[in-house]
Structure prediction request, 570 residues.
Amino acid sequence: MVKPVSERAHTEWMVTPVGAGPVARRVVLGIVTVITLLFLVAPLALIVSSALSQGVGVFFRSLSDPGTQHAIWLTVITALIAVPLNIMFGLAAAWTVTKFEFPGRTLLISLIELPYSISPIVAGVAYLFVYGSQGLFGPLIEASGVKVMFALPAIVLASMFVTAPFVARELIPLMQVQGTDEEEAAVTLGASGFATFFRVTLPNVRWAVLYGAILCNARVMGEFGAVSVVSGNIRGQTTTLPLQIELLYQDYNVAGAFAAATVLTMVALATIVIKVALERIGRETDMPVARPPGH
Amino acid sequence: MRRSVIPGFGLSLGITVLYLGAIVLLPLCALILKASDVGLAQLWGILSSPRTLSAIRVTVTMALAATAFNAVYGLLLAWVLARYEFPGKRILDALVDVPFALPTAVAGLALTALFSKNGWFGAPLDAIGLKVAYAPVGIAIAMAFTSIPFVVRTVQPVIEDLGSDVEEAGRSLGANDFQILWRVIFPAIFPAFLAGCSLSFARSLGEFGAVIFIAGNQPMKTEIVALLTFIRLEEYNYEAAAAIATVMLAMAFAMLVITNAVQAWNLRYLGRGDG
Prediction:
């Protein structure tokens, strides 16, 4: 096992590394600390202080507003549907591109990552042209009486679009490294395909699945652009929590907007805490949990 | 195809293709189909209208400004996280993930409150005559916030992997700190740096949630392309929405091609270094 570079670097230096001098170090650290406090910490601090500035009573009263309650419920339902489907897709996609060689494999990997590059607004508009009354299936869906657009199905579908790569992206590099030896051994010893998957592959990647699922969940709960197009933003019906923030803000209900924002901030902070914990588990179990370069 | 003893290829490929087809490709095809229905003359009319051109100009300029800021701050952040040990390093590392984990609407709300006239930063800035919220620079700040992790997370691992040998060689040949930084370290991290910046730029071009809170959204002044698309939809002007969304899609594809080219170059660069 090769030692991580960060450890190696400290033992092997023969000269003072660039930037390690006391003055350079202090200046660079100082600049980074100041910008980080202004740029990354201040927004977080402001959300919490604004939500609590009018007292805990107002905070909880804002959250018990029926519109906000419904938005929380809708957001949770959306995540409960979209995240498990995304896990299933991520596992299937990673299994396909890492356990098999086939023509078009590289293209498939590019397609899996495609939603990362597309603006959520474009995703929302694109869905409108499938299921909206102007869309490809619009007349068909209207005739059948099922409501897709401006309702829960469209919100779930748009969330699935923007988060499609989340679990797959964590699994592919990991399963690539793990190779196919263990699965081949299991199959050769007579295990069925499903037994191999559930008893060999899945235990090997369980932390990475959780890691991807946590990031996916944060994105589903926080998605704004795509959902704001496909939900139609119908007050009290299709407003998810991020949309509710905008609605309250436009109503000049700043306390309510910040209370709703605080709930989502707590989800975000919990996500980061779990992510850091999973990265530590990944290091301890020698499982390279990939750092996501982007969402 | 190489024969594999592992079963389940058909099933897993089927699920993957079905999901991608129904969730990702079908809507994109529908969008392109809709845009291609719009006649060429009408398409030109939509895209060359002053309002569309202004929105594209505002979006591209502010995305460039945001990327320039992220290039400097992101590089410094990556350097600090990769090369220094200090108390609070874990917290700083976790803070880099905040823009990804925090919903864009929350980021937009918080930044607007910070920079509005009586906000923590807005009040002192207003006193010296600087307007950030409801002005173009506010757009750049929102874009920079949501895309900063791209630069850090792309550059950080490359700095961590830099061996001490090249620096020692430079030092023993008599180079000073600045020469080593400029001639040895920067060339090695440049491809990753460029890749991170192009990811940050691409994300900034498409950002919606964070920007619309802080921008003020005045047509011809602080209206971004994503918002104009949204407005055209609300006006039931589906042709215009399809046309502008397709332009955004084309920009995304162009950025994807550029980023992939840079990353391929990056990998070749790293491969050469390993020997």
